[in-house]
């Protein structure tokens, strides 16, 4: 009626219709997962995970769970990991968990207990070969150039 389109049953996609931030006030405690396509201002407490485009955790805000966002500003407390493109930890904030980021800024007076890891870094892990080289091949390599060996290592190679 009045030109309003009907939504198909079962399609519950979240679409951002305005730029007003979602505000979780200081007297609100949420248990579960919070998902937002826009900005969230958290001054209350969330016991669970949160996924948002932009998240501001106020000085009274507490999250006990994982945080995933494009931008995160922490002024309150996070107990769990943060995974965001840009993370800004303000003075007086407490982060107890790992922080995965592209860019990170930490103000003086902020507390972070956990590891800081840049997301764009590639971990180059070299696998150790399962195949052991024969002793004769190792001896041959040592005999060719043993000038760099210490006295103890030279004695060890001479015994074999």
Structure description:
Strands 1, 3, 4, 6, 8, 10, 12 and 14 form an 8-stranded parallel β-sheet that branches. The chain has a 6-stranded parallel β-sheet with strand order 2-5-7-9-11-13, with no helix packed on it. It folds into 2 domains: 22-118, no CATH class; 132-160, no CATH class. It has helices spanning 135-144, 151-159; strands spanning 22-24, 29-31, 34-35, 39-42, 45-47, 50-57, 62-64, 67-74, 77-79, 82-89, 94-96, 99-106, 111-113, 116-118. It starts with 21 loop residues before the first strand and ends with a helix. Residues 122-129 have low confidence and may be disordered. By secondary structure, it is mostly beta strands. The protein is elongated, with a radius of gyration of 27 Å.
Sum this structure up briefly.
The chain has 160 residues and is mostly beta strands.
How many separate domains?
2
Structural class: mainly beta
Task: Determine the number of helices (DSSP H or I, runs of at least 4 residues).
Answer: 2
Mean pLDDT: 80
Low-confidence parts: 122-129
Helical percentage? 10-25%
User: Compute the gyration radius: what is it?
Assistant: 27 Å
For the secondary structure, the number of strands is 14
- Percentage of residues in DSSP E strands: 35-45%
What is the ordering of alpha helices and beta strands?
EEEEEEEEEEEEEEHH
């Amino acid at each position: 009626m009045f030109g309003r389109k009907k939504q198909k049953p079962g399609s519950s996609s979240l679409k951002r219709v305005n730029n007003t931030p979602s505000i979780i006030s200081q007297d609100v405690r949420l248990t579960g997962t919070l998902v937002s396509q826009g900005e969230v201002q958290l001054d209350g407490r969330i016991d669970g995970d949160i996924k948002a485009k932009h998240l501001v955790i106020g000085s009274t805000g507490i999250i006990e769970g994982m945080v995933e966002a494009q931008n995160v500003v922490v002024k309150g407390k996070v107990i769990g990991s943060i995974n965001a493109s840009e993370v800004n930890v303000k003075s007086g904030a407490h982060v107890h968990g790992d922080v995965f980021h592209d860019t990170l800024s930490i103000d003086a007076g902020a507390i972070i207990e956990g590891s800081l890891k840049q997301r764009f870094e590639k971990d180059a892990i070299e696998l150790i070969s399962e195949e052991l080289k024969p002793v004769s091949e190792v001896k041959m390599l040592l005999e060719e150039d043993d000038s760099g060996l210490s006295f103890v290592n030279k004695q060890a190679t001479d015994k074999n």
